[in-house]
Amino acid sequence: MLPDMKPLYATGNELLVPPEFKYSIKWGFPDRSLRILYKGDLVTVFEDIVSADDGQVSAIITSDDGTTLFTGETTGVINVWRLRTEPRRDKRRPAHATLALRSRLYCHSDQITCMAHSKDYRILASGSKDNSVVIWDLNTLQYMHRLEGHMQSISCVAIHNVTGKAALYLF
Fold first, then answer.
1. Would you give per-residue pLDDT tens digits along the chain (171 residues)?
2. pTM of the predicted model, to two decimals?
3. How many Å apart are CA 83 and CA 98, to the nearest integer?
4. Same domain flag for 68 and 3
5. Cα 132 → chain centroid
6. Residues near 121 by beta carbon (within 8 Å), at least 6 away in sequence
7. Together in a domain, 102 and 119
8. At which of 106, 127, 149 does a domain end?
9. How far, in Å, CA of 101 to CA of 15, rounded?
10. DSSP 140
11. 60-94 burial by CB neighbour count: b if 16+ within 10 A, else e?
């Protein structure tokens, strides 16, 4: 909830973009597009954002300030995007959003199921159906460490912002 205590709602395959939560991102469409909305109104459709012809976006998170977008794919690739949003200042002009690809991260061999990041530790943790979690350095966008040996797919990962420890849930 925001400081003004109004509840916020998102549908399945929709992420509200911080810090003001006026923008949202939807995914999972047959055309494999990402759609950005401003206060529920469609602003932009981004096509051809996946790394392979058979890929689909399977997980999304943003940085706390909403300027970096991480998209995980069914192919195991993670895309790191620069997200820029410009709200409607003049009622005659529509809101605007742009995406610029910063990097593609390769390490997983199956679908990305979940991601978490820590602003304080500058790391991203990605969970996958390949039963592993990969820790990425957000300063260099490089692989740091792989946690393997889990008996099931990783369905949730979280990072404690005080200790930097990762918690996993297997489903």
1. 455 667 777 888 999 999 989 899 999 999 899 999 988 989 999 998 887 777 899 999 999 999 999 999 999 999 999 999 887 777 777 778 999 999 999 999 999 999 999 999 999 999 999 999 999 999 999 999 999 988 999 999 999 989 988 887 766
2. 0.90
3. 6
4. yes
5. 18
6. 159, 161, 164
7. no
8. 106
9. 19
10. T
11. bbbbeebebbbbbbbbbbbbbbebebeeeeeeeee
Measuring CA to CA, how many Å separate 46 from each of 8, 27, 51, 95?
24, 10, 13, 15
Kindly state the tokens that stand for 52. Answer: 């392979």
Which tokens is 163 given? Answer: 């200790």
Domain hosting residue 70, numbered range: 1-106
> How is residue 29 written in tokens?
């469409």
Domains contained in the chain, number = 2
